[in-house]
Amino acid sequence: MDIFPIKAAVPNLNIISSPDAFFARVKEDFPEFEQSGFFKKSKEKAVYIYRIITASSRVFTGLILATTIDDYIHKKIKKHEETIAPKRQMQIQLLLKRRAAVKPILLTYPNVPEIDKWMDTNILQREPCFDIWFEKEKQHHFFWRVSNPTAIAEIQALFKQNVPKCYIADGHHRIAANKTLAEQIDKAGDKPHFSRVLSAFFSTTELDIYDYNRIINIEGLVTIPRMMAELSQICTITPLSHARKPGKKGELTMLIGKEWFSLVWKEDFLKEKKDLHHSTDVQLFNQYILQEIMRVKDIQNATEIEYHEGIKSLSSFEKKVKKDKSLIGICLYPIRMEKFLSIADAHLTLPPKSTWFEPRMKNGLLVKEY
Q1: Is 338 domain-assigned?
Q2: Looking at the structure, do residues 116 and 31 belong to the same domain, yes or no?
Q3: For the stretch 281-301, what's the b/e string if a residue is b when 16 or more beta carbons lie within 10 angstroms of its beta carbon?
Q4: Could you report the per-residue pLDDT of 256-286, keeping only the tens digit for each?
Q5: What range does the domain containing 156 cover?
Q6: Which residues of 318-343 are buried (b: 16+ CB within 10 A; e: fewer)?
Q7: Average pLDDT, stretch 187-203?
Q8: Are residues 129 and 27 in the same domain?
Q9: What is the spatial distance between Cα 279 and Cα 72, in angstroms, rounded to a whole number?
């Protein structure tokens, strides 16, 4: 893969008193923040090493740089989820409004020890150019700037030799927006160059995949007795004595009111759907529970569905479901990394919001202006 150094705009931490509040607003307010002097423009191109240390002492280390939209078009940058048209449109509008990418696409690749060694060497050779503590999440974010042409050439060669493809972990809508603008603006010979995409590379060993759960408002769609009767045709339903998430692939857990249930796909049901033996739980859930039992027809645009990130506590999930008797909570078993890679390699896609990856990229830590 081809990678490129960037001239980044970095936050002026001398005048940012509350990182949590400031970076929460960058997505909407970057033009005003930039004009007011909250960002400093780098004078030279560089590759940035990015390290996040969490409250649990989990350490994530990766790179921030630029990739080319051509690698996305030619499927070297592989997607695994479909995009939703209104969200693509929103990202196009934001890119045009800001003339800047304030959040990198999160990309992953099978671990390459030589790339790890290059990052470790360059971390040891220099102090971080800046670091930020986020009080809300209890996370410390560090950045090292590598601008030496020889070092940049080394990492470019390592990616060229060892990373023939990569996978989008987060940012499907943003890279799709970049593609649209590159095709409409760059090819017309006009500035800015949307064909270069702000990207963060973390190897698969530096990512964690969590579940992505659903809260569905069934009011006006189906009654609970009817839903349970139809569920019993395709799932073995077992009451649970306590709240929990699924323990294995093929199991879902469901919250109705104050009661938790385990749902396990019946073998006879799976045998009838031979073509779906290798499907994921979220695909089976969407087709046979959401669409056929709960009568949610347009899943991508459904207002009845709220998504709940698996990294959040189960108690917060319960609290949301219990606030309204019309709400049903469904917890899904997380997709494994190997399955995620195989789906993308086969040019297949999962439903939107099937995976939640950590670390999450924050807006405004490094900005690529167009």
Answers
A1: no
A2: yes
A3: bbbbbbebbbeebbebeebee
A4: 999 999 999 999 998 877 655 457 899 999 9
A5: 8-209+357-369
A6: eebbeeeeebbbbbbbbbebebbbeb
A7: 81
A8: yes
A9: 25
